[in-house]
Amino acid sequence: MSNRVNMRPTSKNILLKVVILGDGGVGKSCLMNRFVSNQFDENSFHTIGVEFLNKDVEIDGETYTLQIWDTAGQERFKTLRTPFYRGTDICMLTYAVDDKASFRNLNMWKSEFLFYADIKENTHFPFIVVGNKTDVSCEERKVTQMEMEMWCDENGVASCIETSAKNASNVQEAFKLAIRHWLKAESKGDKNESCYAADTVDLNKRSSLNRSSCCMGSTEE
Amino acid sequence: MQEELELVMRCIEIIRIREISCESCGALRRSFSRRNPYYKSIYRPKTGDTGRKRDKELPNIEDLQSLVLASHKNTGRRKIREIQNCQKKFLRKTLRQFLYKKKSTPWIKRWRNRKVNPAQPQIQQVDGGFFERFGSLLRESAEIAKEQEQKEQIECAEQAAKVITKIEEETEEDEEKKVKSDEENEEEEIAPSDTEDNKADYIAVGWNIDDLYLEILYEILHNVGCDVSYDIGQTALFSYIQDAFKMSNEKHEELLAKAEQKEAPDILLNVEIIEAKDIAPKDSSGFTDPFVTLYLTSNSSHRYNTSVKTETLNPVWEEHFALPVTDKSIEDTLCLEVWDFDPAESVREKLGKMFQVKGIKGVRKFVKEVAVTATTGQHTNELVGMARIPLKTIPASGMTMWYSLDKKNKLTRQGVVKVHLAFGSEKNQQVAAQEHRHLLRILLLHELESSQVSPYWWCGNFSGQAEAIITQHSVQSGLTVTDVALSQFAVYSSIHRDHPLNFALFSNLIDKLIKPIQTMTVSEEEAKLFWDSVKRLLPSCFATIRKIRKKCPNEKATLKMIKEVLKILSQLITIDPPENFNLFPANLYGWLSYAGEGPNCDINATLRDAISQGASDWFNYILENNQTSDNSEEGKLQNMLKIIQLVRVDLQRAIEYYDRMFQEIMNFQYAKCLYILYQVRIATMVEPEVVTMCKSLKTINYDWNCFSDSEANEPLALGTKLFELYLALQRFVVLGQGLCPADYESFHIRNFYDWFHGGVTQWLDIAVFKALKRIEKAVELDNLKPVDNTVKFSSSALDTLTIFHQIKIFWDQLNWPDVEGSYTFIAKIIDDICRCCVFYADRTSQRVEGLGDRVDVYEKRFEVTSEWCLAINNIDYVRQSLKPFTDKLGMEDVIQQLSELKSPLDAQRCQHTLNNVIENSIDTVRNKIIELLETVTNKMSPAMKRLLVEGAELFSQDSNSIDKVMRYLDNNLATLHEHLSEDNFNRILEIIWENLAEILSDLIQSNIDKRRPPSFFANLRNTLQLMVKCFKQSEGDSECDQLKKVEYLLFINGLETSELIHQVHLDRWREQQNIKQGPFGELTVRAKFEGNVLFVEVMNARNLHPMDSNGLCDSFVKVCLLPEEKFTNIQKPKTQTQNKTQFPLYDETFKINLTSEQKNIKDGLLLFSIRDKDLFGMNTQFIGEAFLHFNEIAQSTESIESHPQLQLPIHRPTNLNTDLMKALESRQGDKLAKEFVKKFKQKMVKETN
């Protein structure tokens, strides 16, 4: 991950490139807009290719500048969004809790990202899974939190969170969680990358077992 | 008989030069093709089963083969000619044998059929590429022969192969390669025999060759006309005809004798009186009513008259007359007389014309006419003039001439008359025409044989002898011009199939025939003959168009040829073939897409098909011939590129040479037709490959930090090739836009970029990869000297911008048509450029790292160098160029288009994103610059720190060390100022301030810890002030707060303890200014200076803080002057105690005498200390205090009552945590300080109670 250090002036804010992936219509743009400008547009349009926004976030006294690339989820935009994967620090895999298909596609998104971001096989990359649209009613909900956690366990993803861009619930937390997760991966990665990959599985398993109903628990470990 | 005749013709044909070789080649080829499946595939008969069956039925192929082989064996290494002669002789002999057979055998039929199968012309049309194959084919054929024949024969076979190849090469030099051959087309041309067609031509009439020969001899004997025959002489003609007919001497003599016995022919002189001009006026009206009388002088009684044309001087008759002549009448003369017709008019009628009379001459004539009419009452014709034409001046081929009219007694010309004169016969027209055709055929074949004309070359010029004989025959047979033209057309078109003739010949003939055909002046049979000939001619025409690529377009001959072909077609379009006439039989035109029912006569459609088919075949051919063994993706790409290139060349050629011709003559858009075909083919070829390739493209692996081992080369090369292909297609599509603007929208290839979607990502990566490599190199090569005197950056900055420019060029070239893609790619490019900038900044700082470090025996320090400055400037220059660069990417256009395509809102969002990306980039790079500036400052700081310390220690004793600081800073700042841009200089100044402040606060802290005396800090402060002065370019420059604070710290730490204490008091006074209501009450006083005397009236206090348990106070006020040490001689006045009241009234005035020195002391203060006296008077408690600055006390001589009362809030110290108190507290060894701090704390403690 040394290749990303260049983007980050040492004495200034730490710059983090965040890419938001997920099926079309799961609310990626809404998530970003809620996070950056605290706005929510019910009738938002499809994203064309990519969108980009900046946002400073303070965590533990350190300011991070997030460079957020919001991508278009439709298949026809595939060739337009994939160029932007390279050099990413954090990847947000999103789905909508009322859309089972979008959840099933997480695998596809993950592998698409790993392929185009040119990330080596066994490197641990800070993915975070975000289940959006928790504002829907119980009947409409198709993916439970348990399912999400199980998917994360199976796929070696350490962080996950459910959000609602509409209600502004957990949106800030999601991004902060992502940063914390990145910090953790970074510090471990710096020490010994290869060892880390081997350790990951156990660590995650334990943590996920201990995890309470609130996903935020994972950040505390 | 008919068949025999045909065989003779065939025989002669075959024996023609080089034909024999083709024939045997064909036979050889065929024989092998039956055995060897490989050859079968090459020479597969296109026409299907019939052709193949015919091949199989051939009984004598082996014979023929051995014949050829044998002939070579016999002749050994003799010359080609000799071999051919042998072959000729042999064949002639063979054929003669057949000739003598009374009935045709099945073999003959079959043989003839096979012969008709026009394989040969195709072989002749093959060019160089084919030869290679063909040669090898024959070589292989020899190998097969090896198994069967003996070794000698093999040698012969090889020779034969060489010879045959050579002969063909000789004859087909004009068909030089350039465009590669498409052999398979050859086979297609091999049409099945259309025997009926041939029969119609020369078998229908059972004409005996001897009879024809006899007829010709007879005609030579009875020569007519004044043409060449006179010059050539009978003998020459006889020997020529004998040669042409291949007649033996005996036979010739025999037939000649017969011919001489025959009676002289009946010859007619055909006269057409066409028109006359400028006839002398004979009538009084100034006109004439002319008619012509003609007769032969030998028979003047037999006269012919034309009709009368009334009242004209330029009559047109166009009337025909046939005057019988004998061959003895060659000395005869034809007389033409033009007369003025004068009908019998009554005098009255004449007079009626009076008004038409012109001029005096006319009046005279009129009078004369009236007189004559009146007297005779009869018509009297008047001779206008006459012409005499000796018959021997008339050529046999006929002529059209103007003759002038003479009158015996008149010298002036009486006018001119145009006459067509020709000899003719009274023969049966049909017979004559057929005779003529056969004659033409025999003579033409003879001509072709003897003069070795190249294919497509002969254009109607016979040798003198042949010309004479043909002319004689046409004249003596009485053939009309149309008859002759039709005969020629029929014969030439039939010969053309075997030996191509010049198309101009046909175009001229059709020109002559088109009118009679149009006007239906020819018989139905003649029309049929015409159309049959057309049918024979057309395949060759279309073949020419289909094989247009074999011709060299910049040769005049080629263009001429195409032009003539098109002319032929354009002429034929104007006439309609007879009903139910199938002009394009399906068996001949296998490539035709015609799907309608019934006969097909659509020349235009056929032309289109021919062009499409030709292009399509050619495309197939280049596809086949460019199949590379290299099956890698790169190889495939290279191949496709090559093919597109070839197609482009072909299109260009079409546009350059042919298109105008096709449009002008046939109104056919040739290039457009080709393009439409090619675009489909190219799309079909490229699309699947590219789509697959783009899907499986490997991403380029590169590390931002090191490139030395570039494993990325393979995908790099592939990506580059892919881009080349993209550009090639792009150019191709642009070409199509120009060629077919109307149809362009429907072309599939228009969306070619869609196939490349996946590739763009890689190209962008490649662009970045290349850019990074170049940047690395540019930085490496940069000597960090300004490129010239006017600028403050060096070469690598310029190089980097050039690289960016190249990315922009790449973007321009890509010219991505899809708006959404464009937008996204622009975002990507900007992001990439930003990365490049950052990379450049990093490389640049790495490059200057280590520069400017000085090590000598005394010290190690860093000097700012111009290189550092340039490095910073470079990065800044690149940063500043970012925005203009992004503007040049065409963002605005894209946003505009997005707004139209989607919605303005979408466009706005995209615009927003792009702006964000740009700003983010610029910010990031600016941070890089700041980072570098900080690096510079950090490098300077050790030296600054040391110098400061030295300055503090030695300030008073050693000014030298200060000089050193000053020099160091001065030098470095000068360098920075000189080289950095103003912005960056100011920026670095700020950073230096901050840095300095940091150093100093560290220094202060550590030295306080070390309990340095105040003088140390004072010195340090002096040093700092010197430095700041030196830093500052002008007064009022913004100083950073940190530095101000540090300076203040230095200031207070540099003070003596008493001064420090006074500062505390002043601080308290300042504090007091902000207190609205005293927390411990308020004190009212009046004060004034009168000279050096200070009057202070302590009047009262209010709301005093209760100090006693009863909630009241027993207060008094003590007045001190501060700083205390300056007023040691002054007794501190004190009021009386006012018991048990919170609102005491003191009302005491104190008069304090001061020295003027004391009175004018800076920051002198009055301190009112309000205290509570306890019951026993043992102790006093501190209630609070109030301050009055000397500044606040007026200078006045008036009584103190007239001065305003001053309300002072009573307060207590609250904050121990000030810099001043800290400084005091730090002076632990100082008794004064210690006591003051203790008291200060006590005052505070009281408050908390």
TrEMBL record, chain A:
Top-level taxonomic group: Eukaryota
Q: Which reaction does it catalyse?
A: GTP + H2O = GDP + phosphate + H(+)
Q: What Pfam families does the database record attribute to this sequence?
A: Ras (PF00071)
- The EC number on file is 3.6.5.2
Keywords annotated in UniProt? Cell membrane, Cytoplasmic vesicle, GTP-binding, Hydrolase, Lipoprotein, Membrane, Nucleotide-binding, Phosphoprotein, Prenylation, Protein transport, Transport
**UniProt main location, coarse:** membrane
**Entry's SMART domains?**
RAB, RAN, RAS, RHO
Q: Which GO terms describe its biological process?
A: protein transport; retrograde transport, endosome to Golgi
The answer to whether UniProt assigns keyword Cell membrane to this entry is yes
Membrane topology recorded in Swiss-Prot or TrEMBL:
Lipid-anchor
Query: Where in the cell is the protein located?
Result: Cell membrane; Cytoplasmic vesicle, Phagosome membrane
Read off the SUPFAM superfamilies from this record.
P-loop containing nucleoside triphosphate hydrolases
A Gene Ontology cellular component where this protein is annotated is: lysosome
Q: What class of enzyme is it?
A: hydrolase
Q: Which GO terms describe its molecular function?
A: G protein activity; GTP binding
Which cofactors are reported in the record for this sequence? Answer: Mg(2+)
Q: Which family does it belong to?
A: Belongs to the small GTPase superfamily. Rab family.
Which PANTHER family does the UniProt entry name for this protein?
Answer: RAB FAMILY (PTHR47981), RE17845P (PTHR47981:SF1)
Q: How is this protein named in the record?
A: small monomeric GTPase
Q: Which species does the entry assign this protein to?
A: Agrilus planipennis (Emerald ash borer)
Q: Give the lineage.
A: Eukaryota, Metazoa, Ecdysozoa, Arthropoda, Hexapoda
Instruction: Tell me the gene name.
Output: LOC108739075
From TrEMBL, chain B:
Q: What is its main location?
A: cytoplasm
Q: Which Gene3D superfamilies match?
A: 1.10.357.50, C2 domain
Cellular compartments annotated = Cytoplasm; Late endosome
Region described as Disordered: 167-196
Which BP terms in the Gene Ontology apply to this protein?
Answer: exocytosis
Compositionally biased spans, kind Acidic residues: 183-195
- Give every MHD2 domain span: 959-1064
Q: Which PROSITE patterns match?
A: C2, MHD1, MHD2
Q: Pfam families given for it?
A: C2 (PF00168)
InterPro entries reported for this sequence: C2_dom, C2_domain_sf, Munc13_1, Munc13_dom-2, UNC-13_domain
What name does UniProt use for this protein? Protein unc-13 homolog 4B isoform X1
According to its UniProt entry, this protein's organism is Agrilus planipennis
